[in-house]
Design a protein that fits this description.
This protein is of the alpha+beta class. The chain has two domains: about 45 residues; about 100 residues, 3-Layer(aba) Sandwich (Glutaredoxin), CATH 3.40.30. Helix content is about 55%, strand content about 10%. It has six helices and four strands; from the N terminus they run αααβαβαββα. Strands 2-1-3-4 form a four-stranded mixed β-sheet. Helix 1 packs antiparallel against helix 2 and helix 4 runs parallel beside helix 6. The radius of gyration is 18 Å and the shape is elongated.
């Protein structure tokens, strides 16, 4: 659980250190801007950016009921962040599974990616798509809406 917060906390502490250096060097404006940038990056790398995660079994059950795709992801993954940001508000129409919190989700990803935990892996109608183009996922959501 704690490792999902390591990168965001590291970014905040580094930003505070950089800002303190700039502040003591006589550049308070640069210090504030630098701190805001580091805090923004920390927020983007945190699990707070993603919709609430569910377990793999729950996601499969919900997907069978409503037909929505299931996305397996992990915090700090740049490709997962790219998918989440490009989907915008449509991301709420997917079922998200954090593989660092759910061992069954990690096992499902390894089973379809030659033993690797390659994310994002999107399951559509039970078929896996590893690191799909965000435009394709958006189009898929538009067709199903």
């Amino acid at each position: 659980m704690m490792r999902v917060w390591v990168l965001p906390l590291l970014l905040v502490f580094c930003g505070a250190g950089v800002a303190a250096g700039w502040w003591s060097g006589g550049s308070p404006g640069a210090a504030v801007v630098g701190l805001v940038v580091f805090v923004g990056l920390a927020w983007l790398c945190s699990p707070l950016v993603f919709p609430r995660s569910v377990g793999a079994e729950e996601a499969r059950r919900l997907s069978a009921l409503d037909g929505r795709p299931v996305v397996f992801w992990r915090p700090g993954c740049t490709y997962c962040m790219r998918l989440r940001i490009r989907l915008g508000r449509r991301a709420r129409h997917l079922h998200w599974v954090d593989i660092w919190r759910d061992p069954a989700g990690a096992a499902a990803v390894r089973a379809v990616n030659e033993g690797n935990e390659t994310v994002p892996t999107v399951f559509v109608d039970g078929r896996p798509h590893t690191n799909p183009d965000p435009a394709w996922v958006r189009e898929l959501l538009s067709r199903s809406a």
